[in-house]
Amino acid sequence: MKNKLTKFFFGTPQFFEIIKNGICFEFEDGDNTIKLVASGSSGRENVYVNDVEVSQTRNIKFTSRHIFENNGNKYDLTINVTHLFRGGLEVTLLKDNMLIGRQEKIILKSLSWRNVLLTLAACVAVGLVVGVSIALIEKLFF
Q1: Helix, strand or coil for residue 11?
Q2: Domain span including residue 117
Q3: How many Å separate Cα 16 from the centre of its chain?
């Protein structure tokens, strides 16, 4: 049984990679690699066994389940949101009702005022750039 907790810091390359491509969980079961890629922005969840997609769905609930078979074995992969505002997910993988592994990842290590202010500043900066760009285009062409 493998329990693993991974935390990511705001502003690091890993943080921005998660925002862009989704968060990835990998489990080893003998010769098989089972991988879940979950996107917080689109709600899309893809499950792969040895890089072959076996399950896919879109989900905005706090819990999700993927049940699939591989080589005559029944797998049950469960996703639970553990921390809504910090982006915490816990993924549990069962094979024939036996626990293969459990992993938890938290995108924001802590919800500090510094992180809140940095996020707010980034949103204001993007809004300012977009707003000024639209105003200039409108002034030049309309």
Answers
A1: coil
A2: 112-142
A3: 11
22 with 75, same domain? Answer: yes
The residues near 108 (Cβ < 8 Å, ≥ 6 apart) are 8, 9, 10, 85, 86, 87, 115
Residue-wise DSSP of 34-80: EEEEE-TTT-EEEEEETTEEEEEEE--SSEEEEEEEETTEEEEEEEE
Integer Cα distance of 92 and 142 in angstroms: 56
| pLDDT tens track for 33-83 | 999 988 876 778 899 999 999 998 888 788 899 999 998 999 999 999 887
131 φ, ψ to 5°? -65, -45
CA distance 56 to 69: 14
What is the distance in angstroms between the CA of the first residue and the CA of the last residue of the chain? 64
Q: Is residue 49 domain-shared with residue 86, that is, in the same domain? A: yes
- pTM for the structure as a whole: 0.64
Q: Percent of the chain beyond pLDDT 70?
A: 77
